[in-house]
Each structure stands twice: as structure tokens, then as C-alpha cells.
């Protein structure tokens, strides 16, 4: 729940109706509702849920998407659930041999956006946990939508299928802008600042005899490359220099303490 911000009001507008056909477990209904809420979908319809409705298990697993669970409508069959729908997609992971268009989620959600623009209503059908949608139910839909998944393990949990479809809907309807951006608060370090740091690093590495004499130039070039490959900012250089200074001062204190504690020559 770390990404939930109840102070934000998001106007999702129209979105496809999610129709779950004979869902077996209340937990899966709740998780599907959560996936819907992630991407601004608000209307859920249930066709003959096995364990009846309402379901406390669905409410418990919705992770706060109670507005979807509590408003869900229940229907006896798919035909009734689609009574006011003008465009319907059936989700399936299996080829059915039906004379039906097969679309990717991206393609189907582009059609959904166009249908809403024309004043229509759109639904996406998701089948039973064990067997999915049957061919008669698929025949009631305009097209099939399926996902590019591992063909040897193509079965998706209902909530996973809703999540993937919801993502494509949100991306198509609302754009691909990310909810927040990384901010570089420090300007890129001037070359003189970086050079000063490298001189400091080189001097201290010489002090501890880090470089083999024959490899010193190439190793120092490699060290410069390591740092400059990531576009050092001023803050980066200050942090690196401060960390090195702390290590160096600690080493020098330890060395001085060792000399103070060493016995005088006439005491040895």
C-alpha cells in the first residue's frame, strides 16, 4: 500500500467494464478489483460467482478498492452482463478455431478508445480460474484479446490478466507519462573540479603505494574513466572527496597513534 495516496483525486473518465465470468474465489475478485483501481477502471460485473455475492473475502483482498467491490453488479449469464455494451473483447490464452479477430492488448485498447469517442460502451471478459471462457461466451464478443506470453505456460491468474489489460488501457487512454521523475539537484561538475579531485586521489594513492610503477599511468586513466562515465555532478565530487578525506584522516590518526605507542630505541 506504499503507493496509495488518498489525497489525490484522479478523474479516470470512461473505461472498459471488467466482466468476470463465474469467478470461483472471492479472493480473486478482490485482487482483480485492486488491479482495476491501479489503472483507473471502476466498473466490475460478475456473472454467477460460484460462492455467491457479496463476499467478505473479496473486500479483504481488494486492498482498499472497496468502491469497486461494493458497486459490482451480478448477472445470471454473459448475455445479460453485456446488455448495454457496444464492443466486447474476450480474453483467452488458447486458440479457439473461431472466425474471430485476434488482437493484442494494445490493439484492443486502441479500439476501445475509439469506441468511447463514438459514444459506445466497452467490456472485457475474463473467464473462470480453471477453464477460462467457453466458446459460446467468446462468440458473444467482437474480438479476442490475448497476451504475448510463454506458450508453454500461458495461463494467467484473473487478477494478472486484469492488471495487464488495465495497464494497456491506461497507457492508451491517458498517455505514458510517469507519475514522478528523478531530479538531479546538483549541476554537472566543472572539469577543473573533477581534475582537482583526481589529483587528490592520485596523490593519496601514491602515498599508500597503490600503483605498481609500470602500470601507474594506465591505472590512473582507468580510474578517471570509471568516474567520468557517470557524468559526475558537483555533489558527487564533494561526496567522494569527503568520503576519501574521512578514510585518509582515520588512517593518518591510526598511524600517528601507532608511532606514539611504539617503544623508544633504548627501551627495546
From TrEMBL:
SUPFAM superfamilies named among the record's database cross-references: alpha/beta knot
tRNA/rRNA methyltransferase SpoU type domain boundaries: 17-165
Any one annotated GO CC term: cytosol
InterPro entries attached to this UniProt entry: Alpha/beta_knot_MTases, RNA_MeTrfase_TrmJ/LasT, SpoU_MeTrfase, tRNA_m1G_MTases_N
UniProt EC number: 2.1.1.200
Gene3D superfamilies (UniProt xref): 1.10.8.590, 3.40.1280.10
S-adenosyl-L-methionine as UniProt keyword: yes
CDD domains, A to Z: SpoU-like_TrmJ
Keyword list, A-Z: Cytoplasm, Methyltransferase, S-adenosyl-L-methionine, Transferase, tRNA processing
Any one GO BP annotation for this protein: tRNA nucleoside ribose methylation
Entries under PANTHER family matching the protein: TRNA/RRNA METHYLTRANSFERASE, TRNA_RRNA METHYLTRANSFERASE SPOU TYPE DOMAIN-CONTAINING PROTEIN
Protein name as it appears in the record: tRNA (cytidine/uridine-2'-O-)-methyltransferase TrmJ
Organism whose genome encodes this protein: Saliniramus fredricksonii
Name of encoding gene: lasT
Amino acid at each position: 500500500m506504499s503507493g496509495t495516496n488518498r489525497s489525490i483525486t484522479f478523474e479516470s473518465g470512461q473505461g472498459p467494464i471488467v466482466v468476470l465470468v463465474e469467478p470461483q474465489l472471492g479472493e480473486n475478485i478482490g485482487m482483480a478489483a485492486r488491479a482495476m483501481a491501479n489503472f483507473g477502471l471502476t466498473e466490475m460485473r460478475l456473472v454467477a460467482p460460484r460462492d455467491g455475492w457479496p463476499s467478505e473475502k473479496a473486500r479483504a483482498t481488494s486492498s482498499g478498492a472497496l468502491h469497486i467491490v461494493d458497486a459490482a453488479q451480478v448477472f445470471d449469464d454473459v448475455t445479460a452482463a453485456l446488455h448495454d455494451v457496444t464492443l466486447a473483447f474476450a480474453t483467452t490464452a488458447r486458440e479457439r478455431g473461431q472466425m474471430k479477430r485476434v488482437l493484442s492488448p494494445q490493439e484492443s485498447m486502441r479500439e476501445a478508445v475509439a469506441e468511447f469517442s463514438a459514444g459506445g460502451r466497452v467490456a472485457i471478459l475474463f473467464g473462470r480460474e480453471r477453464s477460462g471462457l467457453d466458446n459460446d461466451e467468446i462468440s458473444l464478443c467482437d474480438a479476442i484479446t490475448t497476451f504475448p506470453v510463454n506458450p508453454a505456460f500461458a495461463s494467467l491468474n484473473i487478477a494478472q490478466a486484469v492488471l495487464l489489460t488495465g495497464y494497456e488501457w491506461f497507457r492508451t487512454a491517458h498517455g505514458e507519462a510517469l507519475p514522478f521523475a528523478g531530479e538531479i539537484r546538483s549541476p554537472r561538475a566543472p572539469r577543473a573540479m573533477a581534475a582537482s579531485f583526481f589529483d587528490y586521489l592520485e596523490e593519496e594513492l601514491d602515498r599508500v603505494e597503490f600503483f605498481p610503477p609500470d602500470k601507474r599511468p594506465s591505472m590512473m586513466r582507468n580510474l578517471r574513466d570509471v568516474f567520468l562515465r557517470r557524468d559526475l555532478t558537483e555533489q558527487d565530487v564533494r561526496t567522494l572527496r569527503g568520503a576519501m578525506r574521512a578514510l585518509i584522516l582515520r588512517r593518518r590518526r591510526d598511524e600517528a597513534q601507532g608511532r606514539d605507542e611504539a617503544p623508544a630505541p633504548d627501551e627495546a
